[in-house]
Amino acid sequence: MDTQRAWVATRKGLFELHRRGDSWSIERISFLGEPVSMVLPPQDGRRMLAALNLGHFGVKVHASEDAGATWHEVATPSYPPQPEGVTGPAWTLLQIWSLEAGQGIVWAGTLPGGLFRSADFGQSWQLVDALWRRPERAEWFGGGYDVPGIHSICLQPQQPEELLVGISCGGVWLSHEGGADWQLRADGMRAAYLPPELAGSPNTQDPHRIERCRAVPEVLWCQHHNGIWRSTDNALSWHEIAEVPVSSFGFAVAAHPQDPDTAWFVPAQADERRVPVDGALVVSRTRDGGRSFETLRRGLPQQHCYDLIYRHGLALGSDGCTLLMGSTTGHLWSSGDAGDHWQAVSAYLPPIYAVRLG
């Protein structure tokens, strides 16, 4: 029987799950008791990275060469000394918020808004200076955290030198040259939290999460602080999805790897409450590019539910059907039919920061 694997990064450790048939089970726990902010699933079947946020002891990065059976500490991204007189957030690593890999390069997005690259799988890291030195960075600010952060790193499978990042709150940035050049690409987005004359400023948008369709990479989906946006021209322009049932506010989005018209979102009440609407947890799915949505409820709690799904709490498999969803209160659900039906995997995990499928 084929086994599928997943990793759940939580406030109290990294949980590895295996699926056999329709059932998921916890097979291994690493870093028990320690906050794991992000995990990079196995590359080439074996090599993994995990980012830990140990508070007083700082941020740490661990690597595994055997798909998570054993771990060892590697280098941690670090900022250069902050020049005298430079204001704004301190040049100090607070958290690794995102990890992605492609073409032998690992990318790490951080709080306070820096992007790092590693060509030796975490043995060393280099700050992507061309983005860090952009003058527009002076206008970035925190969305949820006190400092800006890079939560989304979208690689381009057909163009190895291209990558796109989403920043809260700093808009969307695209590089065609492996991070050596950058273009601001948030035209069309709207920030209702700013004065009306500034609401359309691309540099102060708060994209909560951005996902790319792998098969049609010019199509991108964004769950924004003020709604859902879609781009069909590789972020040259963004178009708001106007008619969204339940709520257009949320944090997570999953884009179908083959079908550019299909995506999933997890709606919530905005803005201060940040819980499911009417205490009922649902998932919204569109299969026609956002023209219409289905509200998926089967198997999800529909009364007195106060779970929030973080930006990285919704994971979609390469088959376009397998979904895992983890919440701030430690609940984990799975679906094997693209969200039509859900079943509880666990109700007792620590608060879940990220879910990744292998």
Write a structural description.
With 358 residues, the protein is mainly beta. The chain has a single domain, classed as Methylamine Dehydrogenase, Chain H (7 Propeller). The protein contains one helix and 28 strands. The protein starts with a strand and ends with a strand. The mean pLDDT is 97.
Features of the shown structure:
mainly beta, 4-stranded antiparallel sheet
Query: Cα distance, first to last residue?
Result: 16 Å
On the 0-100 scale, what is the average pLDDT? 97
Strand percentage: 35-45%
Q: So what's the CATH class?
A: Mainly Beta
Helical coverage, percent range: under 10%
Oligomer: single chain
Strand order in the sheet with the most strands = 3-2-1-28
Characterize the main sheet: 4 strands, antiparallel
CATH superfamily: YVTN repeat-like/Quinoprotein amine dehydrogenase
Q: Which structural class best describes the helix and strand composition?
A: mainly beta
Backbone CA Rg:
19 Å
**What is the β-strand count?**
28
What is the N-to-C succession of helices and strands?
Answer: EEEEEEEEEEEHEEEEEEEEEEEEEEEEE
- Architecture, CATH level 2? 7 Propeller
Poorly predicted runs of 5 or more residues: none
Domains (count): 1
3D shape: globular
Q: How many helices?
A: 1
Offer a quick outline of the entry.
This protein is an all-beta fold and 358 residues long. The chain has one domain (91-348): YVTN repeat-like/Quinoprotein amine dehydrogenase (Methylamine Dehydrogenase, Chain H), CATH 2.130.10.10. It has one helix spanning 129-132; strands at residues 3-10, 13-20, 23-30, 36-43, 47-53, 59-64, 72-74, 95-102, 105-111, 115-118, 126-127, 149-155, 163-168, 171-175, 183-184, 207-212, 220-224, 227-231, 239-240, 250-255, 263-267, 283-286, 294-296, 314-316, 323-326, 332-335, 343-346, 352-357.
